[in-house]
Amino acid sequence: RLALIADSTTRDLVRTPESTAKDNRVLETREFFLADLGPARVVETSETWGEIERLFRGFYADKDDKAQREILTGGLEASYLAAELGDFEISDPFDLATPFRSRVEALKAQRGFTDLQNAVVAVFPSSALAFLPPALTAPETGKDGKPKPRQTDYHLARPFQSEVRYRVVPPDGFRAQTPPPGRVRQIGPATLSEEYAVADDGTLLATLRFAVDQRRLTAGEVEALRKAAQEVADEKPVLLQLEQVGEALLTTGRVPEALQELHTLVARSPGKPLPRIHLSRALLAGGMGTAARETARRAVELDPSSATALQSLAWILQHDEIGRRFGPGFDRSGAIAAYREAKKLDAKDTAIRTDLAILLEHDEKGRQYTPDADLAAAITEYRALRTELDDKSLDANLLAALMWAGRFAEMKELLVELGDFAAYPNLWLVAVAATDGAEAAIREAERHIANGEERRNSLLEASQELAKMRRYAEAATLAADAARQAPNAAEILARVQTLRKVRRHEELVLSPEDPADLARRLSIVSLQPGPFDGAQLSALFSHGFLQELDGNNAARRRFEREFEDVREATNARAASLSATMLDVSLALFQPVVAGDAATGFRVQGTGLMTGDRIFAVQEEGGLKIAARKHDEIGLEALRRLEQGDLPGSRQWLDWAQEDKRKIRGEDPLASHPLVTLWTAGTEAGAEEARCAAATLLAGGNFSEKALPLLLACRTAAPEGPRRTAFDLALAWTSQRLGRFADLDTVAQRLAAAHPTSLSAYELRETALTLLARWEDLRRHAEERLALTPNDLAALLTLHRVADIQGNLEESRQWLQQAVESGKASSTVYNNLAWLTLVRGEVDDQSIEHAQRAATLDQYKDPTSLHTLAALYAEQGKTAEAYQLILQALELKDDKKPESDDWYVFGRLAE
User: Fold this and answer.
1) Are the beta carbons of 636 and 617 closer than 8 angstroms?
2) Treating both helix axes as pointing N-terminal to C-terminal, what angle do 740-753 and 721-737 enclose, rounded to 10 degrees?
3) CB 237 within 8 A of CB 861
4) What is the DSSP letter of 906?
């Protein structure tokens, strides 16, 4: 402006200095103090200069404390999603001697948030543009209300600079991740710059600078500024991210480093629960489930009001003592109780509610959707997520739970409410088929799915689900419709034919006089859902067989355990489908029956999960099972001889002999003795039949009964193949009865008859091992090695003898000879690797040997996997070792760790 200076020296008007962007500045510092868990505390400090300072003073000049609070609260909610206003301090607007300054505290600000693994602060570059006049941000409109381009220049009253500085203070135990790169952009004629960095003290820094230096903007510059400013406003925020150090180490498999970091964190804050929560998670990841539970419980003790601590405890209780979710021994009831306590403390936490619902879908053994799961409670939780928290992200889980619970009407009602057929076509067809019939479901498929292939796939998927629900008629109808014009119609129609045969096993009418139905009843009693009923099982077996069990407790326990194991294995594969699997196996069973009521019956046929044959006898009250295995056939053959039924005994021996074919090869002792002692269809005498039956008992549950018979038969037999056959049966029996000296004697006779027989060699090896006669065992192996150079069995024996006697170098040399001979098996490579562990000499060659063993076993043998896990643990590769030992346990029937497995877990803990 032109101004007149009142002074005697004045000759002309003078022009005052033009205001520049540097004269009108605002500096806003936003300090985010991230919480250990949850939303942050933010302190915002603003400093102003020039025209902007004048505006601030004028704005606050007429505001009392209440008005200031209301204004600040609204601003903090918009800027930081803050729940409440904390302390604030604003300069006196009338004190012109002091620069104007404001300091405001935002509490529970969601723009900065910390969870167990990560923390984040959202940075909005558009915040630096906050002081642009509205005329430069909003588009101009004509009289008709539609946007129109600007036609004239724009005069900016005050050029200005705006700077926003972020300073993010990490929670204890967190560190900044690499920040995003900086950038400079032209916002029309203005400039916006962004800088991001990590300070030496670990804080994250961000600086946003915006400057408009021009006073006059052309119409084109105005439009360019408006467009660019809008693009900045529409951008997603820049995220400044931090990670929990221990959790980040866990993610990369560095469990030892994670544990060290978290133990240090616990020591720094012994009274806080959160460090122990992190530590418990790390212990769990390292396979130390018991320690994880103890640590998680301690976290709850430190703060019983912490929903997070209870949630973490609940999660850890869902794992067994070696860290497997739903593994044997996980604490389902404890986990449910902890989740419910956490839910009371924070009913709005969707993660707690979700985890609880999923857990309720599983039973005490960790099996999903079984009758022992609490599906009703799970459904209640899923519905509460929708109604109380407006969270519909788990609708698919709710639909599945309703289906498995058989609540098809509710399932259909929910699908109608969702109104999105395309999202759940197969479930919609299941619900309609179950409530309105299969034909109605087919009509729905035709109405909603125009594409033929998609319709066919949806019908097939719905058919599969209906079969799982044991709704076989509807499943067959849907599959039959899908088969029309299908490229694999023959395959689908075969499935349809099977489904039409399937009936629920509870609905089958079985005859007590039908041998095939007896086999079906055995399968039903053994595998039907519910507790195992030993009495019901025993009722299917013959009086004679049960009498043998009554005098043999070990045999009875093995008999019952076998059925329990089959039941457990079936449930382990698919407990929720056990009834369906039973129904289908009964439908697929195609029996072939031989025999008659006088002689007995043999029922053969594939499909049943309780074996492919039974042997039945007629008793008062109907048919009963007399045998399923060869030693049981031997018992029945002997029983018939005792009753004077020689023809019946012959028939049972003929049936046994059909399965005992001569094994071709170099070893004359590889075949069962019955092959030598019995020829089917001959008119053998009673004594010959008795001796043949005795060999069927050899080495089995009834070896004690076999022993005197076999001794008598051997004595009566002439020198030659028959006597050798009895010796082989005696060897098996002696081993089963723990008569190892007798086993050695018999094995020597077998070896004398057949010096190169591997069977004879291994029988004596077993005897000498169990008798701990190491020097005799060494000589035994050396003799075989002299007969058959580089024989693998002999080399392994010499390796074991040296190992037992503590001669580890000699032990290694025998194994190495096996490798050099080209005959090395997975056992050789496995033992070589294990030997280096015992000697404390694990190296890359050891790992290579262990990997070779596992590869030869196709990674399906728990022994070689265990060795590889142990070697990895020794090398400090804990993540790899942990996964391998879990893989090894999965290959075991009961999946429970034994002493050798605990060695690996102990080494991991070290």
Assistant:
1) yes
2) 150
3) no
4) H
Q: Do the Cβ atoms of 41 and 31 come closer than 8 Å?
A: no
pLDDT for 659 = 83
How far apart are the C-alpha atoms of 532 and 599, rounded to whole Å? 32
3-class SS at 102?
Answer: strand
Task: Find out whether 811 and 803 touch, Cβ atoms under 8 Å.
Answer: yes
Residue reference for tokens 């869902």: 318
Q: Closest Cα to residue 280, out of 271, 270, 290, 272?
A: 290
Task: Measure the CA–CA gap between 437 and 476, rounded to whole angstroms.
Answer: 12
Q: Smallest Cα–Cα separation from 241: which of 159, 146, 331, 174?
A: 174
150: pLDDT confidence band, cut at 50, 70 and 90?
A: confident
Beta carbons of 692 and 631 less than 8 angstroms apart? no
Q: Average pLDDT, whole number, for the chain?
A: 94
CA distance 402 to 418: 15
Distance (Å, whole) CA 36 – CA 110 = 14
pLDDT at 370 over 80: yes
Q: Which residues pair with 409 in a beta bridge?
A: none
Distance CA 30, CA 122 (A): 12
Give residue 296's region: left, alpha or beta (phi > 0; psi -120 to 50): alpha
Q: What is the average per-residue pLDDT within 539-559?
A: 88
User: Does residue 400 register a pLDDT over 90?
Assistant: yes
CA 621, distance to chain mean position in Å, is: 49
What percent of the chain stands above pLDDT 70? 99
Helices 452-468, 438-448: crossing angle, 10 deg rounding = 150
Q: What DSSP letter does each residue of 566-621 carry, written as one string?
A: HHHHHHHHHGGGHHHHHHHHHHH---EEEEETTTEEEEE-S--TT-SEEEEEEETT
Euclidean distance between CA atoms 240 and 254, whole angstroms: 24
Q: Are 809 and 817 in contact (CB under 8 A)?
A: no
503 SS3 class: coil
Cβ(581)–Cβ(609) under 8 Å?
Answer: yes
Instruction: Tell how strand 190-198 and strand 613-619 pair up.
Output: unpaired
Q: Could you tell me the domains of the chain?
A: 21-142+157-244 (no CATH), 247-433 (1.25.40.10), 648-758 (1.25.40)
CB 677 within 8 A of CB 725: yes
Q: How many residues does the chain have?
A: 910
493-541 per-position pLDDT tens digit: 999 999 999 999 999 999 999 999 999 999 999 888 777 778 888 999 9
Taking a C-beta distance cutoff of 8 angstroms, is the pair 306, 300 a contact?
Answer: yes
Which pair of tokens denotes residue 287?
């396979």
pLDDT tops 90 at residue 638: yes
Compute φ and ψ for 724, nearest 5 degrees.
-60, -40
Q: What is the per-residue pLDDT for 621?
A: 79
Q: What angle do CA 592, 595, 597 make, to 5 degrees?
A: 125
Cβ neighbours, 10 Å, residue 644: 9
Q: How far apart are CA 555 and CA 256, in angstroms?
A: 48
User: What is the Cα–Cα distance from 124 to 417, expressed in whole angstroms?
Assistant: 39
Q: Give residues with Cβ within 8 angstroms of 594, minimum separation 6.
A: 601, 602, 604, 655
Q: Yes or no: say if 60 and 93 are a contact pair by the CB < 8 Å rule.
A: yes
Alpha-carbon gap, residue 657 to 692, rounded angstroms:
10
Q: What is the distance between the alpha carbons of residues 886 and 869, in angstroms, rounded to a whole number?
A: 9
Q: What is the pLDDT of residues 664-674, one digit of tens each?
A: 678 999 999 99
pLDDT at 453: 93
Residues 6+ apart with CB under 8 A from 610: 519, 522, 523, 526, 527, 563, 566
Separation of alpha carbons 910 and 187, rounded Å = 59
CB of 467 closer than 8 Å to CB of 495: no
